[in-house]
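Q: What would this complex look like in 3D?
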Amino acid sequence: MSIASDAKQALQGAVQGVMAKAVALAPDSWIPGGEPDPLIRERYGHIGKPLSRIDGPLKVAGRATFAAEFPLEDMVYASLVFSTIAKGRIAAMDTSHAETAPGVVAVMDHRNAPRLAPPPVFMSAPKAANGDNLPIMQESEVNWNGEPVAVVLAETQEQADHAASLVRVTFEAAPALTSLDEAREQGTKPALFMGQPLHDERGDAEAALAAAEVKVDALYTTPRHNHNAIELHGVTVAWQGDVLRIHDASQLVAHTAWSIGQMFDMPEDKVIVTSPFVGGGFGGKCLWQHQVLAALAAKLCSRPVRLVLSREGVYRVVGGRSPTEQRVALGADREGHLKALVHTGVTVKTASNAMPEPFILPTRSAYASETLKLDVQVVELDMLANTFMRAPGESVGTFALESAMDELAEALNIDPVELRIRNEPEKDPSSGLPFSSRHIVEAWRTGAARFGWDRRDPRPGLRREGEWLVGMGCATGTYPYYRMGGGAARITLMQDGQAVVDIAAHEMGMGTATAQTQVAAERLGLPIEAVRFNYGDSTLPGVVLAGGSQQTAAIGASVGAAHRELVKQLLKLAGNDSPLAGLKPDDVISRDQGLCKADETARHESYASILSRAQQPSVSVEAEGPPPLETMHWSMHSHAAMFCEVRVNTVTGEPRVSRFLGSFDCGRILNPKTATSQFRGGIIMGLGLALMEEAQFDERKGRVMNPSLSEYHVPVHMDVPEIDVIWTDIPDPHAPMGARGIGEIGITGTAAAVANAVYNATGKRVRDLPLTLDKLL
Amino acid sequence: MTPFRYMRATDAASAVLKGGAAGARYLGGGTNLVDLMRENIETPESLVDVTGLPGGIDELPGGGLRIGAAVRNTALAEHRAVRLRYPMLARAILAGASGQIRNMATVGGNILQRTRCSYFYDEAGSRCNKRHPGEGCDAVGGFNRNHAILGASSACVAVHPSDMCVALAALDAVVHLRGNGGERRLAFTALHRLPGELPDVDTMLQPGELITAVEIPPMPFAARSTYRKVRDRSSYAFALVSVAAALDVEGGQVRDVRIALGGVAHKPWRAERAEALLRGGPLSATSFAAAAEAELASAQALSGNGFKIDLARRTLVAVLEDLSGEIA
Ligand SMILES: Cc1cc2nc3c(=O)[nH]c(=O)nc-3n(C[C@H](O)[C@H](O)[C@H](O)COP(=O)(O)OP(=O)(O)OC[C@H]3O[C@@H](n4cnc5c(N)ncnc54)[C@H](O)[C@@H]3O)c2cc1C
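A: Here is my prediction, written as structure tokens for the whole assembly.
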């Protein structure tokens, strides 16, 4: 980012800081969630039922249409050509062979691409969605190794792919900065995340560390990761009159519509982005060059375009997780009370994005240490912009922090579970805010009992079964409750008792549509079958990012607000001839397909009766969720106690996870079935993070060398043991429905639990992920 | 992918006729060749599908097997005689790739699959002497964790990725070939080459030569044999190191032995030195260690694969211990 935009961000941050103080001090009742959501009281309705996903039958039958499957008439197929240098320029481009290849309709490059305004990079504006702010195929400059330099359009995908191989590009390389070590030597700079510095200090942590009776102080490193959702990034676009239609695989349709509108100088409502199904997002299905290139190409050749990234293309065009080097130092007294907690380090971004991997986030509210020092520094490399990947910050940050806690437990000769419980804070150690709901101790205790933690011998290397050393480890996982502003929803209630909920939210396979149908049915007092939940369309109300595990809350708050509006309207329509006559919206709840007085449920009138008396076929209301002030008033976090049993082969060093248990405290669980899948999926991704995931970035050229699922390892079935998942199910009184999001927490803490188990098995402390067998020989 | 012509051959003679043409390649299951065509590393003008050629798995007098080149990997691994007489072969095949790929893959194609070196695979962005002789090798100073420790050259440090071939090398298999000049037989261990100065040449096959079958001689003691593969995840990963071995023991002495290593060299690595040291010697941990030591004495590490030398030694010793335990 430029200095000016850094300054702008810092200013925004300062304003937010002042506001945060005011909100922190305000009375509870002024804050969203100050009055617990009435749905929290409902214990026997739709919420909490293990409903199977409503989109399941469609998907199983192959009838769910994904972005790359929309057939548009007269459509052409696109194939990309990528740069092979990290920095420099295109000196020459020979497209003549490609242009005359069979089926080719056009070849687009920086010379003939339609003109475009610069992309609004994520976090530069409320609806900005682009991964970086670099011009998209507008000039000869090359900014990273793998940047698209040409798009070939042909009648079939095969023809496009073939012709793309015929494009001859001559690059003129300029000196590029692609090595973390070299960049560090030139100096690091403080990281800004969402406008706030990634820096906290309380007391003199270094002095407290030096003076501590017992201390550990070590460096932990984590590698680059790439997004590998099973659905490749695909898009089908068409210009229809003055409207641009985009069938996308997206976790932010409204942001995408606005951002593309900015680039093409169009009002956002002329850009229609739909995304009914997404085959995995994880932070990777936002706005990257491919959607924009498809729109440019469709404009150039005046025909609809389908562009599906190859697996290699995903690695070249869609950012991933940055590498980190983290120092964690802990000082404690002999009883294990923390006196000093230092978590600092460096990560990598580009000059064109605003996303330093915020690995200190989990440490902010973790432990009751007397002193604290947290800091993230960044260096900027010539590479593809990095981005969000499931629990950015927490996933790799908990690896360092929770490994260090294990090292401290060992140094103190205190059980690692006990050490964590001993350092439970009473209020948020960084912000000083009260916790909204924190039951990690309960999660630890039930998890430990169920896992059989008492069978663990704290002395490493003692449990042997044949060739295998067996060990157990644990770690805390954590992820904050987020709710971003901009959420809004529309409820349409029909006289026949059917309701439609419209919101521009997303279903990426997590079960959102299912769980939110349950919530809406509960909120409206309707049977599940009577509710249709519409999502994945930028023309629907609301700006809802499916990220930061915030959709559950954002949708919940928006639908809650719309429901209040609906009650108001219905009371008006009901008038004086109703059993509800004279009641205020606050006194009324939805139940049994109608409204009733909350504390006198016999005073009830059905929706059908109200609407027919009012001679209205339907009523439709729209409302915005309240501003998300609750996170400035309470410290709102989910937690998990992670337990792992691992086996390490004494001949080959091969580590294999044999048992895993996650004990979660995430507020109320809306649907235990889809929630279990989210927890398990997160843990499986965490096992990949622990044991094998690594994007091999060749620093000589700034190029990822393993852009395929054959060489970039993620866990296979045999790497994944039975994963036991339990939860406290204690509602968070200040979150909509009492529920905090659950999409990301599973990946947090997992890597540390594995590494700690490996230590217990072998006596080898691996501080450098992934934990491959060569580190255990 | 470059457009190509597709032809089907129904007998070896016509296959060789078509396959001998310039720019022609034989097509087995396509699981490797088609991938390489997608990456523009292979650009054949015509493909001669040889999956329809006759030849199953035939018993030979004396107990050997003759395996048609078009036999699928799955069929070979499941074959009763293979499982009983050459368990190392069944295990090696099952340790490779995935069920779907093994269902497609043929014996001929498996033998001739090419290296997985990521610089070899990066036609657009990296230098590779195997793709373009003389342009240099980016693997040497780059990611070479899974590269050769034995028999490499400065021109090429890639490894042969096959599991099945490691067993075939240990089992004294013989390859039946047919070219325009007629038929010939070649010892399996003489089929693949070390890179030397010609890393672009993987094998001793003549242009257009067709593998028609693989013959495995009788080897009664191979009924006690095994294959152990060490890899970065439990399945669906290429070997970092693998060992195929059979041990023939009499009165506490090693009467005969076969050992081959995978993942260590440009070809399946028959461990002749280790075999020679073990043959006729005592069945002991010390002799196993000495044999492993001798076999890896010439090993050379690259920047990222030094651990493989120790790993190969340890795995070899463990396999021998396993087999001797099984026998005792
Ligand atoms: C993701 C992935 C993972 C894998 N993992 C492993 C693994 O762990 N271990 C392992 O061993 N393998 C692995 N493989 C490789 C797999 O075993 C090979 O792709 C397969 O064996 C090739 O057989 P095929 O019949 O498909 O060959 P093809 O792709 O059809 O052909 C390969 C080559 O053999 C030539 N050829 C084929 N038949 C003949 C013949 N009769 N005569 C002369 N030439 C012929 C072709 O011209 C071509 O050059 C993996 C492959 C993939 C894609």
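A: To summarize the key features: Chain B is about 30% helix and 20% strand. The pocket of flavin-adenine dinucleotide is lined by residues A 710; B 25-33, 35, 50, 69, 73, 96-97, 101, 104-106, 108-110, 112-113, 161-164, 210-211, 238 (CB under 6 Å).
Q: Very helpful, thank you.
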